Amino acid sequence: MNTVRIPAVSPRQEGEREPDLTSMYVIHRAMLADLRRLIEVLGATAPLTGGGNQAARAYAASVLTEVHHHHANEDDLLWPIVERTAGHAVDLSPYTDDHQALGPVLDRCRAALHGDRHVLKRALAELLGFLDEHIAEEESGLFPIISRFVPYEAYAWAEKQIAKRASFGQLSFTAPWLLRHATEDEAERLLAGAGAPLRILVALVRGRYARRERATFG
After folding, report:
1. How far apart are the C-alpha atoms of 175 and 205, rounded to whole Å?
2. Where does the chain show beta strands of DSSP type E?
3. DSSP letter assigned to residue 21
4. Rounded to whole angstroms, how far apart are CA atoms 88 and 20?
5. Boundaries of each Hemerythrin-like domain copy (predicted)?
6. Could you say which DSSP state residue 91 is in?
7. Which domain holds residue 47?
8. Residue 14 maps to a domain
9. Is 9 part of any domain?
10. Mind listing the pLDDT tens digit for each residue in 133-182?
């Protein structure tokens, strides 16, 4: 249940600063890219054994957590802001309906984490197909509406609330994971918007993430 009080907010006026959607673009790219990489690893001819098998399943579990939290945060924090500022310009029901349909797909992926790798591969492929279409529609249909109507400060507030929700353990994966999939310019913007504690965390855990990535993908 969402216990955060959503602030009163008015639509962005022409000439006012637009929201920075960098983190949204990067997390979308990260989810799709790593699902594709996991599907490739799980579908390889050579069997996954020992540490590689465990690493791939653990990495998949982390990506599934990111997918879940990303869409829950949209429902609880971002969509209410969009509704208050752009409700006259967009119908959010297709996006919220997609989020409802996502739940069973994620459940099948989680159930497959500890079973046959080909079952896990098929489950992740189903998730990839779902997200590929959902993200394309969101970025083409909704992002321009957010840029036009949501004030910079309101969007930044939602991002801060999302960061507050994340546990230390989750941030230890999320922060270096996003930077891994960001361009140099995007990484600079992400770090500029982060507080000093998060920048320190990134410095501490980036090496650990890199080792996880190598263990999973080689």
Report:
1. 9
2. none
3. -
4. 22
5. 27-145
6. -
7. 22-217
8. no
9. no
10. 999 999 999 999 999 999 999 999 999 999 999 998 999 999 999 999 99
For the stretch 8-66, pLDDT in tens is 999 999 999 999 999 999 999 999 999 999 999 999 887 777 788 999 999 999 999 99
4 occurs within a structural domain: no
Q: Are 77 and 154 in contact (CB under 8 A)?
A: no
Taking 70 as the threshold, does the pLDDT of residue 110 lie above it? Answer: yes
DSSP-based three-state secondary structure for 47: coil
Domain count along the chain? 1
CA 145 to chain centre: 20
d(CA 23, CA 187): 9
Residue 23 burial class via C-beta count within 10 angstroms: exposed 0-12, middle 13-18, buried 19 and up: buried
If you ran DSSP here, which 8-state letter would residue 15 be given? T
Q: Which two tokens stand for residue 72?
A: 């829950």
For residue 51, count other CB atoms closer than 10 A to its CB: 10
Amino acid identity of residue 29, one-letter, is: R
Q: Is residue 16 part of a domain?
A: no
The token pair at 133 is: 């279409």
Tell whether the model's pLDDT for residue 2 goes beyond 90: no
* Token reading at 37: 């990489």
CB atoms within 10 A of CB 79: 19
Q: Residue 157's pLDDT is what?
A: 95
